[in-house]
Amino acid sequence: MNHSEFTKHINHYYPLSEETLKDLLNICTEEYYHKNDLLLESGSMARYYYFIKSGLIGYYTVDEQGDNIYKIFFEENSFVASTAAIIKNEPSDFTIIALEDCTVIQYPAKAYRELLEKHHDLALFHMYYLEKNWVVKKEPLEVSLKYETAKKRYLQLIENKSLYNRLKQHHIASYLGITPTQLSRIKKELY
């Protein structure tokens, strides 16, 4: 099982010792999920962290009307988890779904948390990862959701061509917080 991209992305945040890396890889398994398989269902305990080797994953909640509201999408070489649910040891408010066939490196949250206590370098990786992805990246996204129009957010989304081209129109509309009809109107205005 080739974990080179996985270890490369970890070392991008903070370099791990050989011993730490060996312990981490010992708790990892490579798993395959078919399109539309759930990695985690809302209301369930979040038991794993994931690293996407191939495929596309969506992260959504369900509104009062029963519609899926996509919060974020993850492409290859991304780490995915219901982090808040893991930290609080509570059922997840979010569903994590394979939007394409996916291969992931999966590692159990409990064993990983034990390694965080054992290995200082792994704890530093985790801290730097959370700072960059859950604070630095998340804050502008939340401001964008609150203050920017769907049209402006659509324009930002299409800047990431590789992601945009992989998404279905209903995923895009859900992410923007609008109906597919409203999305069609925005596209007509722009093109």
Topology overview:
Blueprint: H1 4-13, H2 18-26, E1 29-33, E2 38-40, E3 48-54, E4 57-62, E5 68-74, E6 79-80, H3 83-88, E7 95-98, E8 102-108, H4 109-118, H5 120-136, H6 138-147, H7 150-159, H8 161-164, H9 169-176, H10 180-190
Antiparallel strand pairs: 1-8, 2-7, 3-6, 3-8, 4-5, 4-7
Helix pairs in contact: 4-5
Element string (H = helix, E = strand): HHEEEEEEHEEHHHHHHH
Q: Describe the sheet with the most strands.
A: 4 strands, antiparallel
Per CATH, the class of the largest domain reads Mainly Beta
By CATH, the architecture of the largest domain is named Sandwich
Radius of gyration: 18 Å
Domain count, please report it. Answer: 2
Q: What coarse outline follows from CA principal-axis ratios? A: elongated
**What topology, given as strand order, has the largest sheet?**
1-8-3-6
Into which percent range does the helicity of residues fall?
Answer: 40-55%
Task: Give the CA-CA distance, first to last residue.
Answer: 45 Å
Count the beta strands: 8
Overall mean confidence score, pLDDT = 89
CATH homologous superfamily designation of the largest domain: Jelly Rolls
